[in-house]
Amino acid sequence: MCARHIVASGIKRVVYVEPYPKSKAKPLHRDSISVDPAVPSIDLVNFEPFEGVAPRQYQDIFDAGELRKDSEGKAVDWRGRGGKPRFLRFQNTYLDIETAIVSSEIPRLIKALNLGMPGSVKASLENDHEKAQ
């Protein structure tokens, strides 16, 4: 429904931070929108991904996080502190989060409800659970 309102409003370009994989906008509005176009359309509303540092990660990436100077005002030797990544990669899309939840909860539900499960289905779920972590 949002895509329909965007088209009706006359907006020509939409930049999104995170895609929504369940969206039906692309198949429902093929005549009026272009999703992730290689070349922007002149006639259609272009839905394009944001390129750059997402607002929710900006602080984590660019904040020093540790003191740069000691109590006397002298620079702290950063090399002696044992380097570590500023942030670890984490799941950040709805699809990743939902997949992780489903792959961990279905086996728990099956066990809790005492439901039998064919070996191939069980192996597939366990494999999905390992990938999600």
Summarize the structure.
The protein has 133 residues and is mainly alpha-helical.
Keywords:
mainly alpha, 40% helix, 9% strand, 3-stranded parallel β-sheet, flat, 133 residues
Task: Give a topology summary.
Layout: H1 2-9, E1 13-16, H2 25-28, E2 33-35, E3 45-49, H3 55-62, H4 94-112, H5 119-132
Parallel strand pairs: 1-3, 2-3
Model description:
- The chain is 40% helix and 9% strand.
- It has 133 residues and is mostly helical.
- Among the domains are: 2-49, no CATH class; 89-133, no CATH class.
- It has a three-stranded parallel β-sheet with strand order 1-3-2, covered by helices on one side.
- Helix 4 packs across helix 5 (119-132).
- The longest helix is centred in the last third of the chain and has 19 residues, at 94-112.
- It is flat.
- The mean pLDDT is 79.
Q: pLDDT below 50 for ≥5 consecutive residues: which ranges? A: none
Task: Tell me the strand order in the biggest sheet.
Answer: 1-3-2
- Shape verdict: flat
Question: Gap between N and C termini, in Å?
Answer: 34 Å
Count of runs of 4 or more consecutive helical residues: 5
Supply Rg.
Answer: 23 Å
